[in-house]
Each structure stands twice: as structure tokens, then as C-alpha cells.
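Problem 3 from the worked examples.
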Amino acid sequence: MTPYSRAAILAVGSELLTPSRIDTNSLFITEQLNLLGIEVAFKTVVGDDREELANAVRIALGRVDLLVCSGGLGPTDDDVTREVVAEVLNRALVEDERIASRIRTRFESRGMTMPDINRRQAMVPVGARVLANANGTAPGLWIDDGTRSVILLPGPPRELKPMMMSLVEGPLGERAPGLSLVRRVIRITGRTESHTEEAMRPLYAEWAGRPVPIAATILASLGQIELHLSARAASREGADAALEAASREVSEVIGLDVYSRDGRALEEVLGDLLIARALRIAVAESCTGGLVTSRLTDVPGSSRYVDRAVVTYSNEAKIELLGVPAALIEQHGAVSEPVALAMAEGIRSRAGANVGIGVTGIAGPGGGTAQKPVGMVAIAALVTGTSRSRTFSFIGGREQVKFQASQAALDMVRRMLVV
């Protein structure tokens, strides 16, 4: 059998084109295909529209030799995936009585009669292989069309995932190219995308000529940069070794701005550092409104190092809850490094913690002045007797300013702990 070289994924469902539903199935399918060394060339989300779906299927089959579709296999009129794919491949649909009987039995086991519309789920394109679904009524389908294959999977993740896993261990694995495609995410903060790209260019050229070539893609957002590395090798171990060497080289070039070489979030990295040093942290926040603390406590087991936090939004709260001197606020303003330092010390001393963070700023969109514009944030950290503070000028809207401020606060402590 000819190995698959490139795949495409179609996520089917009009709900996936709304803000209320996110397509996570494609991520899982991509991961499983990559483990087999099958590259995913592109993904498409398409609604429950016959013409649009047919066009998407035709385009995909013109570019790849494996198409995986998720969703649209239910019993209702808007579940059109099997019908459209059968039409594109010029296959008639016939009812498989074994599927209809299984669905009927499933309903009867719950004391119910199968609605007649569920017979649609028993319709199978001529020549298709039926994929059993132990977790739902809709079976999957595998259709070979010359050297190409189309796989139809149900949309619910609890049905799709075990079905996909069985394919990876069976027929998909048999037609894998014999290579393992492995990816790694390196996370960077404290520098711009252009500065990162400039520093990385010499490595790109070197990686391309190695026995196990490394491909790299930069994804930038306000507050952090992700460097996605991928390697294809005869074994997963070989790809992992190549990526490990490449990630170390990134650290040598980028330096301390690299905070994670294994995809971990900044709050996870900081949490591990605090645990390793048996330190406890306390946080005083103003403009971030609790975001720093929320990120710290998003990590399971964070009670081992997070002691307490307060949101002191008003000047009165800073004075009453943290002991920030009113004269200090009067002299420097609430958004200033002296006040941020006093906030960090106030919460640290009250908690009896080793580490204190203070954050105060102007998240916007209003409240800024010529001297202290929107996006200006003062951040301070105290770590076992050592202090550091800095005033930042962040860009973007309110949420972006808050995220960048939280990122800078966590990163300030990280840097103090690793040097």
C-alpha cells in the first residue's frame, strides 16, 4: 500500500463558525496523524451547507491523499457529511441493516423506540468500511478512492477520540510513511518578534541541512512569542533528540528570554521554580484585577507556593490593606515604582512569604494622562531580600494590557529566581 504523504482535516458544523463553539477535534486528529509521520497540510471549518461542504471536499481531495472529516454524521437534516462525500466520490448510499439493528437495540436498551430518522445513520456509501462506534449511534466510515482515502468521524469528542485511536493502531498505522513527525513549542518573552527572527535566522539555515531537518515557525502575540519546531525522523526518539538539540541552541541564542523549552506556560515554569526553592508567594494587584493570581492558581498544586493575594484597586485600599504610605502615593502617584515596591513589601510582610509582587497601572481605555498614558504599568518584585522594579509601556486594549502586565510580573520573579 502506498503510504499517505499529506492529509487535510474538515471540521463540519455551522456551530463551529460561531464564537460559542471551538473546534478541538482537529487538534487531536493532527496530533495523532503527526505521531504517524503524516503531515497535515491544512484544516478547514465548514458549515452544514451541502454546496460549501462539497466544494471543500473537492478542494481537499485535489491536494492531499488523506482527508479526515469530523462531524455531520447525526440523524437530522443538517447532518449532511456522508451524503455529500458520497456524492463527490460518485458512490450510491445503501442502508446497512446491521447498523440499523445495532442503533435500534441501543434505543431499546434504554426503554425507547428508535426514531425513523436514525435510519440515516445506517446509510453507507458503496465500498465503504464501517467503523464501529461503541460510544454513540453514528458509525464512522472509511472510503478508499484510488490512492486517496476519506475518513468520516462523528463530532462528539468522546466518540471521535477512541475511533481515531483505533485507526492509528490499525489501518492508518499500516499506511504511515514510516517516519515520526514531532513538534516542540519554545516560549519567549521580553523581546519582539522581529528581534527574535533576526537572532534565529542563522539557526534556520543550519537546521535545514541537518540529517534530521528542523522546521521552525514563529507565532507572536503581545507579551510572548512562540517558536514552533518540528522534526521528521525514522523514529520518535530520533526526532526528539534533534528537537532537544535545537531547543538548546535556541536558548543559547535567545538567552534568558526563553522561559520554556517544552511548551509550559509561564505560570507553570514559575511554580516549579518556587517549589524547587521551597518559596511562597503573595501578590498585590491593582490594574490587573487578580489576573496574576488567577494565572498562578490555574496550575494544579499551586497551594504549595501561593499564600495569598489582594486586589487593591483604590488608593485607600493600598493604604489600608497594604500599608502603603499616603505620602508616597501623593509624592509619586499610584502608578509608580515606589508604590509598586511598597505594595509588594506590604503583601509579602503580611503573608510572611518569601516573594512579593506589586502591580499598579492604567489598563485603559480611559484614565491616562500625558505624563502617565494608558498602558503604563509599574511592577515590582521582592525575592528573599532582593528587590526589582520597572515601569512598562504596554500597547493594545484593556485585556491586552492586563495580560502583558501579568506576564511581565510573573517573568520578573522568574528572572530573579534563575540568575
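Problem 4, a separate protein:
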Amino acid sequence: MDLAGASSPTRREWIVFARRLARRRTALFGLVVVMVVIVSALGAPWLSAYDPVEQDITNRLRPPGALDAAGRAHLLGTDHLGRDILVRMIFGARPALMVGFAAVAISGVLGMGVGLISGYFGGRIDDVFMRLADIQLAFPFILLAIAVIGVLGPSLPVIIVVIGVSSWVVYARVVRGAVLSLREREFVQAAHALGSRDGRVLVRHILPNAFTPWLVVATLDMARVIVIESALSFLGLGVQPPTPTWGGMLADGRVYISTAWWLATFPGLAILVTVLGINLFGDGLRDTLDPRLKL
């Protein structure tokens, strides 16, 4: 009985949240786009009729809708090596999403920890962390990426670590701002008066209230990370061929932009639609979770 009564308010809160989010059509559109990309990436082996890395020179630079010798259609055409564009786009979503989720997880956890400690304790600890944040912001990301990748070599784990370690500042500052306000609230003062230690206050009282702005930043930051991964792949610093990536496909297609427009157009649209969907969902999530914005 008690468990059912305790879970009932939580269930009602989720229902209210879902209804408020459902009223934002742009957020739902973004969520649908994100889910389609995720499902396509997870089901790539079953959705693809071709091997994404197998070359077929006899079918090179075929326009969208062209048929191969077996009568199968290349819906988005083929590239300069005869590989199906649609299949490579579906498989190219995998490294983009993997880098997005992993890098955001690393930077989000680092930023959350730094923001909680810096905002709660203040003083010299806050000064040290904020000066480190200033140094991080002053250091050019591309220069850092080139230096690290040049030493360790281009690979998916290296890209994830480079992006994750260099993106914690925005999380730290957002969480720190929330903690600076929360630590002066009555419920935090009451917890101190009842003898709660700092660690318990941070985990049980401040962290749940600082999680909402962190979640919104993480959602919006994933779009930025996907663009960064595509840019690194475009420059040849990302995942190396023959593994398909959207940025790598753009780099291959720029040479044929005047003769085979589909090589660069469709991967570019994949990046555009995915990033747009994530941004729309993130904006809707921010508006839905903001208690000052009631529908």
C-alpha cells in the first residue's frame, strides 16, 4: 500500500510531463527523427541490402533510383567506388551516435562533478575549477584534436575521449549556477540543521534539483558533438575508411559535386536532419521542464 501510494505521485508527474511534451509538435517531430536515426543505426545489418564497404566499379556514380545487374534499386545512387549511398548513410549513423552518446556521457559526468563541488563549496575550490574552465575555453579545440590524434592516431575511442574531455565546461558552469542558488534554499539549510553531511546533501537534495538543467544541456550538446565528429571525419581526423561516416562521405563527394551531386547532398542532409531533430527535441524538453513555462 505504501509503495503504491509513493509511486502514484511519480506516475502522475510522468503523465503530466508526457502531456506537456506532446503539446509541442516541434519537440515530437525532433523525437521522431532521433528515434528513426537510432532504430536505423541499430538495425543497419537488417535494413541494408548491400555491403557498405564492398566496391563495385561497374556501378560507380549511378544516379538515385538506378538499378544494378540483379535488378535491385540504388535509391540514393552509388558513390565513386560503386557503393550504395543509402546503405553507407545508415551505417554512418552508428559512429555519429556512438560518439555523441559516449562523449556527452564523459563530459556530462565530469561537468556535473565539477559543478557540484565548485558551486557547493565555493572559495578556493571554486576559483581553481573556474580558472581551469577558462583555460579550457581559451584552448582551440581543433588544435587540441590535431595534437592528440596526431600522437595517438585517429580512432573512435580517441575521438570520444578528445571530445568528451574538452566539453565539460558548459556542464560545469550550468550546474554550478544551479548549485549556487540551491545551497541557499530552505530545504538545504534544514538538511544541515538535521545533521546531514555534505556528501548526503549533495547527492540527496542538490543533485536531483540540478539534474534538469544538466539534462537539457546534454540533449542540446549531442547535436554539437555529432557536427564535431562529422567535421573531424571530413578533415580525415575521424574514423578512418572504409568505415562509413557522414563526414567522410561528404569529403569523398566534394570532388564530384558538379558531376554527381548526390554523393555529398544526401550525407549532408543526414547531418542536417539529425542535428535539427536533436535541437528541436532539446528545445521542447527545456520548455517542458521549465516550471516558469506552463501550457
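Solution to problem 4. Residues 45-280 form a domain with the MetI-like fold fold (CATH 1.10.3720.10). The longest strand covers residues 66-67.
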